[in-house]
């Protein structure tokens, strides 16, 4: 089964809710990722043209991470209810990751249970930072513990905050450079904090081939001993227990580097729909076939299904 784990869908109802809460939604409107019959028909036709059987929908980066708990809970419940509607209407074509009202742990655990147990979601999603805080922050331990107890998937997507540096945000690089930088920072936080070893049952998926991780992993191995001496295990060992989606904008050397560094068995198909649309969407599949040879079949058609239990 060919499953695309990196696919977005935002309804106007959801975007209209989170906009006054402080999230800029302009980049997500009018791009073909809505829930109208016309947009869904076009999406399904595109999926068919690339042989994609199913997409796992994610509300990221417009996740309901808000300082105000009532706002976070309201947005999370709306997002999950909307997604449950789409997965019920199209049970063979769509699954979904649950949105969580972070950083409010009790509410997030309750919504995680509702998403997984009542709405049939296949995991949860967060961004690479929660209101600027690291995913490895000790305050999030109860969430990691519950994800580990359930043995479920956590999909990690950039926040679009330009890694909170003006050197990215003020130079028109928020997504082209900022997003993979955020991926790289987040996954390295997890590795250095020992999250994969402490919570071995959580199936963590990092977006965009792990950002720059395939190029940096040997450097991290070489330097963590003196720069991060509290790291509990060799970072490359921990990194190879995570999964990484294949969004690489059709750049064959990138997907080859990820496969050689992290293992082709740790790669799962991602397209970043609607930002890779049309021929770019089809290229998101074709470049894996071009770059990985005999390993492509597993990446395209087996790894995600096994990971998600679909």
From TrEMBL:
Keyword annotations for this protein? Lyase
Which CDD domains does the protein's record reference? metallo-dependent_hydrolases
Which N-terminal stretch is annotated as signal sequence?
none
Q: Does the keyword Calcium apply?
A: no
Q: Which Pfam family, any one, appears in the UniProt record?
A: Amidohydro_2
| InterPro entries, A to Z | ACMSD, Amidohydro-rel, Metal_Hydrolase
Q: Which residues form a coiled coil?
A: none
**Amidohydrolase-related domain mapped to chain residues:** 3-310
Known PANTHER family for this protein? 2-AMINO-3-CARBOXYLMUCONATE-6-SEMIALDEHYDE DECARBOXYLASE, ISO-OROTATE DECARBOXYLASE (EUROFUNG)
Name the record gives this protein: Amidohydrolase family protein
Organism, per UniProt?
Actinoallomurus vinaceus
